[in-house]
């Protein structure tokens, strides 16, 4: 009796969506989830729970630039494969959470694949947090880092102003779709030049801390953290890709700092 009920439920689930439609949706879903900053294990779990509910076995291939989802019906042999390019998006934990909730809604039968496509579109078009709010939070957070490392109040003010200018330049570069490496280098340079004000004007007793913490807001923490998660889960290609991305961005920060040292004639050694 139980086997009969499960068979009917699976058949009902499959009747509403073809393998081609499901694989296309799951691939696009995965590409957006990667863009929003999810790890490979999160993408795999979310896709598998949705595929299992609609009655397919999912095989997911996650590459640095593309995601491929293959769906197979082991009972009928129906098969479909779809590949989607990774979406270039700003990291958003709010969108990440909504995407995970969407996967549970599909897996629990609350949302059909067709409705899920519409919800995914709304998530991707949802407005982000105000740039001004984010900027204020980043400024205060970076100034707090300065204090945490022993900076005095004057150094905190310098770091706050350096962060404000650097983050504003970062937003301008993002708006004009500037290369992210050039953007990080430019923002690092501007922040470091402003952060060197403690050396130039002698207004703080901890100028080295002000200079060192002025660029901390640019550190690519999420790629470093995600790369470790991918390594632990065995996604070594994605681990290498994310690690190299983080290393390159860190090198751009260092290049901006070095250029600022040279122009401001500062020798901290």
**SS summary, helix count:** 12
Shape: elongated
Give me the Rg, rounded.
Answer: 24 Å
The helicity comes to 55-70%
Q: Provide the β-strand percentage band.
A: 5-15%
- Separation of termini? 78 Å
Largest sheet: 3 strands, antiparallel
Number of strands: 3
Average pLDDT reading = 89
User: Structural class from helices and strands?
Assistant: mainly alpha
Spans of 5+ residues with little confidence (pLDDT < 50)? 1-12
Layout: helices, strands, pairs:
Elements: H1 2-15, H2 19-35, H3 40-54, E1 57-62, E2 66-72, E3 79-85, H4 93-107, H5 113-125, H6 131-148, H7 153-175, H8 180-195, H9 197-201, H10 207-213, H11 221-232, H12 236-264
What can be said about this structure in brief?
With 269 residues, the chain is mainly α. The protein is 68% helix and 7% strand. Helix 6 crosses helix 10, helix 7 packs antiparallel against helix 8 and helix 11 runs antiparallel to helix 12.
Q: Mind explaining what this structure looks like?
A:
With 269 residues, the protein is mainly alpha-helical. 68% of the residues lie in helices and 7% in strands. The chain is built from 12 helices and 3 strands. The protein has a 3-stranded antiparallel sheet, covered by helices on one side. A hairpin with a 3-residue loop joins strand 1 and strand 2. Helix 6 runs antiparallel to helix 7. The N terminus is likely disordered.
